[in-house]
Amino acid sequence: MDSLQIYGLTAEYRTRLLGTDVPRPRISWKLLSERQGTVQAAYRIQVALNQTNFDSPLWDSGRVDSDESVLIPYEGPEAQSRTRYYYRVKAWDGFGRESEWSEADWWETALLSSDEWQAEWITPDSRAIEPAAEPAFLLRKPFDLREGDIASARVYATAAGVYELYLNGSKVGDDELAPGWTSYDSRLQYQTYDVTGLLREGGNALGATVANGWYKGRLGWENKSNHYGDRRAVLVQLHIRYRDGAETVIASDESWKAATGPVLMSELYDGETYDARLERKGWSEPGFDDADWRASERLDLGYSRLVAQENMPTRVTETLKPIAAIRTPEGDTVLDMGQNMVGRIRFSINAPAGTAIKLTHAEVLDKHGNFYMGNIRTAKQTVTYIARGEGTEIYAPHFTFQGFRYVKVEGFPDQENGLPLEAFAGEVMHSDMQRTGAFECSDERVNRLQQNIVWGQRGNFLDVPTDCPQRDERLGWTGDVQVFAPTALFNYNGAPFFAKWLRDLKADQLPDGSVPFVVPNILQGYNAAAWSDAATVVPWALYVSYGDKRILAEQYGSMKAWVDYIRAQGEQEHVWDTGFHFGDWLALDAKEGSYMGATPNHMVTAAYFALSARILGEAASLLGLAEDAAYYGALAKRVAAAYRDEFITPNGRVAAQTQTAHIIALVFNLVEPKDRPRIARDLNEMIVDNDYHLTTGFVGTPFLCFALSDNGYHETAVKLLLQDTYPSWLYSVAKGATTIWEHWDGIKPDGSFWSDDMNSFNHYAYGAVGDWMYRKIAGLAPDPASPGYKRIRIEPDYTGGRLGHARASYESMYGKVESGWAFAGNGNENGNEDEIELRATIPANASASILLRGADAEQVNCNGTGLADAEGIVAFRQEADGVRVEAGSGVYVFTYARPQASYRTYHPGARLGELAQWDAAKRILDRHAPGFADNLGYMEKLPLAAAANNPMGGGLSQAQFEAIAAELQTLRA
Questions:
Q1: Measured between alpha carbons, how far is 498 from 308 in angstroms, rounded to an integer?
Q2: pLDDT tens, 226-284?
Q3: Catalytic site residue 410?
Q4: Could you tell me which Gene3D superfamilies the record lists for this protein (predicted)?
Q5: Which member of 473, 618, 795, 967 is catalytic?
Q6: Cα 931 to Cα 933: distance, rounded to the nearest angstrom
Q7: Pick the catalytic residue: 108, 176, 285, 742?
Q8: Residues 918, 912 contacting (CB under 8 angstroms)
Q9: pLDDT tens, residue by residue, 644-661
């Protein structure tokens, strides 16, 4: 196939986007081409109101000479409410090929103005049904439709609380826990549903049931409810359009009737109680007798806060079957789901009326094998179902979710003789994001760690990025989010998810720039370094992952307000030394009884001040704000200088002797180049002297392996990753973890637990090591200078000496990107034990910079030929680290001589770093043998400096060699 094709169309990152209030959605597409080095030369977009009539489009961009194919804004006539827009794309490439038009996709607007709401907020009449009553409310409205073909029907609905909508007896949509959690005081999402197929001529009925959810329910550990309001309500507006052009609107108002039903209690923390005997059969169907139902009344909640659905909704994304039913030593009957998951249990049962089945959910068993609820704190996580006694009954909770692996079952018929496993299923729930990333390597323990990272993200990305999904917390802690965001954005397409959450952060930010600890903010705590810096770090992570400048523009005011807040603290402009901070939270070098690590808080505040100022300056530059770019760029440099004055000694050492202090100094680029080798060496020695164990907490851990790998100690980083004794990432894997733990020793070596006060077994923060695994081991990363994987960095580092292969893939906005390497016997198809094979896949309209680490350019084979003759290779050059290859799109297989086992010794900054930086060594070489250093192969650098005799075979005279070696030895000393 030698053709150019267009596929993968999206509007605002989504296909078939139903119900948006974005007036000018951005269109993206992918190119499919089998030719290496394919680059788009031009594109053309058409938008029409009818997918069969693009001959008279609403907007035609015409041919646009550009290689842009991601997030191109619609520039046609102003969008209208409740309108579907079809779009298609064609493209031309640099080979002169023209594609056919793509298949058409569409987006559909919702209500673009609050004036369009005809519905009223309604709730049961408070004189008939107590507003604070625990049972979920039911509200219904019968209506008749005239004869005539229905062209389309849409429901726009939301709730103060969480709701389910029914039409003619069928649940509308597959969303769960709608409308999701936003900063309700400022923003409340509504959903759009296509219900065309559920309506009929004549009698119809709408029904809504609403429970407390995040709006009114208990949140936080202080047993507080009613954070946003003390009354539940729903808002429903149904638009019906006939083929003859007529329209009918059915809207919630005081004519709706209300009652309570079988959901007697439903709370996010505590679970649900459901009495099936109280079901009102047919309550959402026409013809139901509602004579004993009560009136409803209007609530004045307004429309100004309403926004169309922004994030992917929460859905059931997978079903797990229990792997065993256990009888514990204490006599409990417990289901083992085999995986710490988030969601609910669905079960079927045949039982007499009134039989109560109780399910209690927990994450772990204790060391004796008994059911353990201590770490859940005050959350009950209990579901009770009371049977109606009519044949097979099937039930799953409606308005709650649990975090669990184990389920204690009580009251199930004949459970003394064993539970029927086929009667139970675990329904996994989270925001229904597209899976984009994959990683695997030769060590199955690391593969399990990767699975744990992904499961931790799934469990905690349930509409907001929570810290934990099981205890009486489940809050959007900003610190956890900012360290995990790059890992999260590799695993899943999180652009809509994070954009929604960042809008809530901005909404909850105070006028002085203060940023909360948690978003949405129910704790009223503000301004902690590394936590509140999510205001800058997360938008930047989105930009790097997707090239999304609009999110930077949208959040720029928030970002700037946050940096200006920091700058205004204390008596010195460049030092933030006031207020409360979490510091290196949960670090193992903390004082007895403290959660805060030994790294001084002011080192953390200064490091993040510099980071946020630098991000802000770069964002300003991208947005064309030259004055801000210059100011905040200079501010970042001044803050870094103040950091050095305060925390780096005159002889180039870090004042605080903690792992985290060294990590942030290196990774945040806060030290002078001359001091970097010593600081990196000191960090390495801390790890080695601690028998390759870490002592870091929430601040240091995400960057620890980067600090080592980027400064010449990749072997140490790999040993650290593969360590499986406490404390380490693989310690929890060895203990059977299926998600990431909050504490390194959540379960201690003797089987006992860390304190119940704070011991989540599903807490993704330490899973941030995934970012290093993807970027450094597999070698796959976007280039921030050309973000969104337009230009890709493929730089795998296999010099750790302990892995036989690794590979990662990522479904980018341009298509699938892959990087993988293997030694013989580890997936290397060549099978030559002396060779390494590196595979790279670059999608059309993207390019890559590929590092063949340790290679000799003359010895590299690419797709069966030399580099100079390989199709798609734009350029290559020999560098200190190996061969740098610039490549266009295509699939490349590179093979070359496997570096010797001692190759890792020569990694820049390792042994060479102990001598001096290569730049210093090069100056010595240039003085004695001008130009010689520029021609050195990667493998030759250290032997020249350290060998006992001349390894160059005549490349230097013996006198030259001896003079150089003597100076280098002096430099080393």
A1: 16
A2: 999 999 999 999 999 999 999 999 999 999 999 999 999 999 999 999 999 999 999 99
A3: no
A4: 1.50.10.10, Galactose-binding domain-like (2.60.120.260), Immunoglobulins (2.60.40.10), Maltose phosphorylase, domain 3 (2.60.420.10)
A5: 473
A6: 6
A7: 742
A8: yes
A9: 999 999 999 999 999 999
